[in-house]
Amino acid sequence: MPSEGTRAVHAGLPPAHPDRPFLDGPVFAGTYHQIGDPTGPYAYGRYANPTWAALESAVAELEGAADAVVFASGMAAVSGTLLALAEPGHIVVLPSDGYPATRTVGAHLAARGVTVRSAPTAGDAQAAELAGADLLWLETPSNPGLDVCDIARLAGLARAEGALVAVDNSLATPLGQQPLALGADISVASGTKALTGHSDILLGYVACADQAVADRIRGWRTLTGGIPGPMEAWLAHRSLATLHLRLDRQAANALALAELLTARPEAADVRHPGRPGDAAHELASRQMRRFGCIVSFTLADTATAERFLDALELVAEATSFGGVHSIAERRGRWPGDDVPPGFVRFSVGCEDTEDLLADVVDALGKACG
Predict the structure, then answer these.
(1) Where is this region: Disordered (predicted)?
(2) Predicted confidence band at 34 (pLDDT cuts at 50, 70, 90)?
(3) Is 47 in the active site?
(4) pLDDT of residue 369
(5) Of the residues 32, 42, 44, 46, which is catalytic?
(6) Could you confirm whether 99 is annotated as catalytic?
(7) What is the assigned CATH class of domain 4-241?
(8) Which member of 146, 168, 200, 226 has the lowest number of beta carbons within 10 Å of its beta carbon?
């Protein structure tokens, strides 16, 4: 089998044909010709589109999945999975430190008769909540705390209870972590982030080990209309060809930044799963091939963090992660994350390492005197 970088370049491309592009352009169609009874795959624009189909084939290949379903955004993929699979009377176990909007969907499930339990990511704490569960939702590494749980162990425990296992793989991407190979049933991700990497589209996907599960989730997408635009799907597919290059550069930069910050007295609680000595490093090393682009750390207080962010020259202050441009934010400005006031989430981009580190050192000096 070709290596992962080669597969990323070629995933989902059509066979070579004279006078045809490597990747066909986006198909803009709300309606297709249908003569008589529907017989082909494309009956109506909300049901299917050849541009999505090519991207779904590529994502399924990279995730090692039976099938993948693409959505209009990461949260469309998250909510589509949870709402399609969790029924009244079911028990769902969520991470208490995961993405806040996922927990908000959990509150909607609870209002509809689903029992929702939660526990932190670190230490596999969700294992204690699995009795009778129907669905276990993991987020590893967690966002923004960067804790890691043992996917294979928790998947085994969940399977013994008859539960499906879904993993939010947004931070790692399929080239950083393979949840399905570790025993999960579903890998969910925001393609807005590192998968596409240019901060210019919204996209999400769900990759499934079992075709029947994918069919349920695709049916929910059709019913609710959470479909991606063809241009977004085409841009996402095009971006896969550089995924391994971007991830390698970002991982190297993130590790360099984490090591720099660990040696600086201004920064406390520096976290990055790729840094030897990080609380999550040993476990992350067993189940991740790349450790992602996020570094988190805590400065003295809100004012110090704001001065630091304002002093950065190469790093934008923005909310997201995974793009080729480095961005950072004081995460406590948003409700939902239990973090200290001076907590900074730093998404490391593809700039030259020396330039990026110099910018951070200069900003720390200006912020902390």
Answers:
(1) 1-20
(2) confident
(3) no
(4) 80
(5) 46
(6) yes
(7) alpha beta
(8) 200
